[in-house]
Amino acid sequence: MKRIKMYKLFERVWHWSQSMLILFLAVTGFEVHNSISIFGFEKAVQFHRIASYLFLILIAFAIFWHFTTDEWRQYIPTFKNLKAQIRYYGYGMFKNEPHPVHKTRWQKLNPLQILTYLGFKVLIVPVMVVSGLLYLFHKTINANNVVIIQNFSLESIALWHTFGAFILVAFVIVHVYMTTTGNTATSNIKAMITGYEEIEDEHKPKESKKVEEVK
Ligand code: HEM
């Protein structure tokens, strides 16, 4: 085993602030939806708006970071080892079998994680952002007769936004469970806090293009 710098500072700050914002948006959003009562409706609306602006700013920084650092390459989908990974999560890990895919600095994600996180980035987040912005500006949009979206009623926008919120909450629950499936139950969480992670140094995957170690 060797200890390498797996997550850069920006990545860790982005990860934790995104988690906090999503949780806060879920709490305030479901208060607006009338499912829970914590801050009171008016305050929940106000807090949800402020948090959504912060979320948008964070997304803009994250997109910039992914493209300027080449980290977007970590999300190129692959079906290689996908079956082995699914088998591992469903059976192998309970039998203490080794991880089917070895983690490196430039191959942090296994094929199932790539597909899940890619879905999060290109499907769930865009649904939330687009429906959220339509929700926010529906009065202005309606007043200006924007042809493409004038047929969307506020009800259907709210429905899409709430549907996305349920998917996002389910994603967070599964994601938190999955973080416990690393070398130890807390090793993945510790790595996302400190940036450093212990990885196996033998059997380097052949397809890994760059293996950069920061000591
Ligand atoms: C950029 C992202 C987002 C924007 C712009 C946004 C915007 C909005 C707006 C404008 C509303 C209506 C309340 C109001 O007038 O303020 C709303 C409601 C809501 N939001 Fe968001 N939101 C975003 C992200 C999220 C996220 C990440 C979640 C959950 C994880 C969420 C969950 C909800 C829920 C459940 C409602 C109540 C829907 C209803 O029943 O009417 N939102 N959002």
Describe this structure in words.
The protein has 215 residues and is mainly α. 60% of the residues lie in helices and 4% in strands. α1 (9-32) packs across α5. The radius of gyration is 20 Å and the shape is elongated. The two termini are 14 Å apart. Residues 204-215 have low confidence and may be disordered. The protein binds protoporphyrin IX containing FE. Protoporphyrin IX containing FE binds next to α1, α2, α4 and α5.
Structure keywords:
2 strands; mainly alpha; Fumarate Reductase Cytochrome B subunit
Secondary-structure map:
Elements: E1 2-5, H1 9-32, H2 41-69, H3 82-90, H4 111-143, H5 154-178, H6 187-194, E2 196-199
Antiparallel strand pairs: 1-2
Helix pairs in contact: 1-2, 1-5, 4-5
Residues 22, 25-26, 29-30, 32-33, 45, 48-49, 52, 55-56, 128-129, 132-133, 135-136, 158, 161-162, 165, 168-169 line the site of protoporphyrin IX containing FE.
SSE pattern: EHHHHHHE
CATH C-level category: Mainly Alpha
The side-by-side strand order for the widest beta sheet comes to: 1-2
Strand content: under 5%
DSSP strand tally:
2
Short description:
By secondary structure, the protein is mainly alpha-helical. Helix content is 60%, strand content 4%. Helix 1 runs antiparallel to helix 2 and helix 4 packs antiparallel against helix 5.
